[in-house]
Amino acid sequence: MTTESNVKPQVNPQVNQAFSGGPFSSRLSEDFDPEWLLTPQQLALQKKLIALCAEVLRPNAIASDRNLIYPRENFEALASLGLLGLLVPTEWGGLGENHVCAAMVVETIARYGCPSTAMCYTMHLGAVAAALFRAHENPALQSILQRLDAEVAIGTLSYSDPETGSHFWYPISSRAEETDSGWQVFKRASWTTSAGFADWYIVQTTSPNFSGDYSDLSCFLIHADEVKAEPSKWDALGLRGNQSGSLLVDGAVIPKERMVGPIGDGVASNDEIVDPFFLLCSSACWNGISLGAIDIARKHVTRKKHVDVGMRVADYPTIQDYFGEAVIDTSACRMYTLSMGQLMDRLTNGCDWSIHADLSALPRSAYLHWYWQIKFAAAKNVAHVCDKMLHACGGSGFKKDMEIERYLRDGKAGWVMGPTNEILRQFVGKSALLGFESLDYWNQSVNERVLHNELKKMDDVEKRQLAEALLSEVETESSAPIKRPAMASA
Ligand SMILES: Cc1cc2nc3c(=O)[nH]c(=O)nc-3n(C[C@H](O)[C@H](O)[C@H](O)COP(=O)(O)OP(=O)(O)OC[C@H]3O[C@@H](n4cnc5c(N)ncnc54)[C@H](O)[C@@H]3O)c2cc1C
User: Fold this and answer.
1) Residue 195 CA: which ligand 1 atom is closest?
2) Single pTM value for the model
3) How do residues 266-282 score in pLDDT, each as one tens digit?
4) How far is the CA of 419 from the centre of ligand 1 (A)?
5) CB 430 less than 6 A from any atom of ligand 1
6) Rounded-to-integer distance, Cα 431 and Cα 425, Å
7) Residue ranges of the alpha helices (H) in 304-361?
8) Domain range list for the chain
9) In degrees, to the nearest 5, what angle opens at C-alpha 13 toward C-alphas 8 and 15?
10) Which fold has domain 155-266?
11) CB-ligand 1 contact for 418 (6 Å cutoff)
C-alpha cells in the first residue's frame, strides 16, 4: 500500500488533453471530487486511467452497448496500467493497493469509460479478493494471481442459482463430490458476469460432505475450458457488454488445490470477501454512472441556448435545482461508499492479505449491514439521477448520440442486481427491528408467530388431519436417505 504524501502526481499529456478541450472538458468540476481521500499515487493512477478512458474505454463502450460486445479490449487497456492486479501484493507483481483505491478505480471506469467494463471489473476484483483471501498455502491460486496483467487473465464470481434467484447464497442446484485426487464440481448458475469470456471463475456449491444443511458451502477455482456458457443468449436493457449469461460446470474433475479455502469455507468467504468487495465496488460503479450522467448533462445544458429568452438551459433555476440535488445526493453516496472503503482499510492494515494466514481473521464481516446500506443508497440514487439528468437535457437526452440514455439503462441494473434493493431494504429493516438472527438466510428457523396464527384458523378436524399428514411425512423422511442437491446437468 502506498501512503507517502509528498509525491506529486505525474502529469500525463493525454490527461491534459482529456480535461482541456477533450471529451471531459465540460464535466462537473473536480472541486466536487473528494480527492483528499486518495493518496498522491492513487491520484496519479486516476489521471492515467481517465486518459485511458478517453482514448480506449469510452469509444469501446458505445460499440459494446450497440453490438453486445464483451469489453476484452478494455481489459487489455486496464492491464497496461497493472489494474487487473490492483489488489495483489507487490511481491506477487501487483500494485498492492487498498479498498479505497479499488472503489476509486471502479467509479472512474464507470464515470469516464464504460459502465459494462466497470461491472465486469467489479466481478474480477471480487474473484481476485476471494483468491487472495485463501492463497497463502495454495499454489493454484498464487499462480493465477501472479499472471493477471501479463496474461489479461479475467476472473469472475459465479454464485446465482436458477432455483433461488437473487438469493445467491443458496446454490441449491450445485454440488461437489470428493474424488481420490481432488473434487468433481457441478455448478449451474443463472447469471455470471463475463460468462464464457472470463479466464477463471470462483464458483460456490454446497460442500462435498453435504448433509442437508445449505449453509455448508465451499468455493472452487474453475478454468475457462471447464465451463459451458451461452453468450449468444445475452441481450439486456443495460450493461450490455457485461454478458451476464448462464454458466454450467458439468462435473469438472479438478485437483485438491483448486478448492478455495477449507471445506465449508463458503460462508466465511461470502461475509468477509465476496459481499464486502462486491457491495463496495458495485456501489462505486453506480456512483460513477451517476457522475457520468451529470457530466454529460452539464455539457449539454451549459451549451444549449434558447434564443427567444437569451438564456442557456443551465440558466433556468429548475435545471440548477436538478443539478443541485443530483450532486448532493451523489456526493452523499460517494462519501458513504468511500468511508466504507476507509473502514475496510483500517480493519486490515490497508488491505494487508497476510492477516488471513490466520483462517479465523474475519474483520470485514462484522460490518455487513453497512455494506448493504451503501449499495441500496447508490443503486437507488443512480436511477433517480440518470432520470433527472435526462429530463434536464430534454428531448436531446432521449437520443442515443448524447449517451445519457445508455447511462440511464446501465444504471437500472443497480436496483435488480443481487442482493436486490428489495432484499437489502428488508435485511436492514428486519435486523434493525428484530435483530440479525431474524434474517434466516438458509430458511432454518421457524416463525412460530405465523405458524400459530395459521393454526388458529383451523377447526379441530382440520388440525387432526394436519397432524396425521405431518406424522406420516416424518415417518417417510426419517427412513429416506439425505436429500442431495440436483445434478447440475439435470
Ligand atoms: C447485469 C447483471 C449482472 C449480474 N452478474 C452476476 C454475477 O456475476 N454473478 C452472479 O452470481 N450473479 C449475477 N447476477 C445475478 C444477480 O445477482 C441476481 O441473482 C439476479 O439479478 C436475480 O434475478 P432474478 O430474476 O432471479 O430475480 P428474483 O430473485 O426472482 O427476484 C424477483 C423479485 O423478487 C424480489 N425478492 C426476491 N427475494 C426477496 C425477498 N426475500 N424479499 C423481498 N423481495 C424479494 C426481488 O427483489 C425482485 O424484485 C447479475 C445480474 C445482473 C442484472
Assistant:
1) 8
2) 0.93
3) 999 999 999 999 999 99
4) 6
5) no
6) 10
7) 317-347
8) 155-266
9) 75
10) Butyryl-CoA Dehydrogenase, subunit A; domain 2 (2.40.110)
11) yes
